[in-house]
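Appendix C reproduces, verbatim, an entry submitted by the partner laboratory led by Prof. M.T., so that reviewers can inspect both the input and the predicted structure.
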Amino acid sequence: PDAPVQLIYDRMALVLYNQSDAPVNLRNLEFIRVSPTAGEVRFVSSLWRTSNLGRLGVGDCLIIWQNSLRDFSTPDYCRSREAWYAAGVPSRFWIALDDTQTFSVRRGGVTLVTCPVNRGVCGLALTLPATEEP
């Protein structure tokens, strides 16, 4: 809960929430789950189409949900939904039939955090101010 960015998710959607007191840079992030049957399931942050990806504001959220849903309500804790993405099966990195699987968030080949699949809250520590990250 102390990390500046929280990933809050269940089997329907994942919310990326900037709970810090400063904008954060979410450019060049990769979300990856390696499935023993499907191989690599990947989502890249640039699929969230927003000009603010390099400076996601305090309290703002980005959301990814299953494309089988028409829409997903913005959670009350979000100041605003900055961008969203309706994910087909090849992009649903946070969902797996096997609850023991995990997904990782990477930038430049470096793993920033590894999280359990399907349901949870996972902190993402982005250590540099938005203006200093690549």
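The CA atoms of residues 33 and 93 lie 5 Å apart. Additional entries are available on request from the coordinating office.
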